[in-house]
Amino acid sequence: MRLLLCAVLLVACSKGDEPAAYQPSPSLVPATELKRGRDACAAYVAQVCKCAETMPALVKQCQLARPLPEALEVDQSVGTAPGVDKKDAVSLAVAVRKTIKTCIDETAKLPAAGCR
């Protein structure tokens, strides 16, 4: 009886020899939304940095804007990396959307700062 019990436990605890196939996590941010966000951030950086050439008050804003497109890409790629749990993927999708919102909101403020 003990031998049978040991055999059952051994079979139950053994792992399969084949590793799981690579499957990236699905993106929680749709591709169209991500593309619009990339475009919005690129446009914001271009516009604020162009204005900073003639308006010294916008130089710091230009410097802060430059990393936004990369932050968007990093959050998206990490959020869809293999092994990322659902909670982290959702947090990273929220970060992607916050970055997109920042680009859109800051672009809307540029005319009030004298940037056309």
Task: List descriptors.
single chain; 116 residues; mainly alpha; 5 helices; elongated
Report on this model:
With 116 residues, the chain is mainly α. It has one domain. 66% of the residues lie in helices and 0% in strands. It contains 5 helices and no strands. The longest helix is centred in the C-terminal third of the chain and has 24 residues, at 86-109. 17% of the residues are buried.
* Percent of residues in beta strands: under 5%
State the helix count: 5
Q: Which shape, going by the Cα principal axes?
A: elongated
Query: Which structural class matches the secondary elements?
Result: mainly alpha
What value does the Rg take, in angstroms?
24 Å
Residues in helix, % = 55-70%
H and E order: HHHHH
Largest sheet: none
Instruction: Estimate the mean pLDDT confidence.
Output: 85
Low-confidence stretches: none
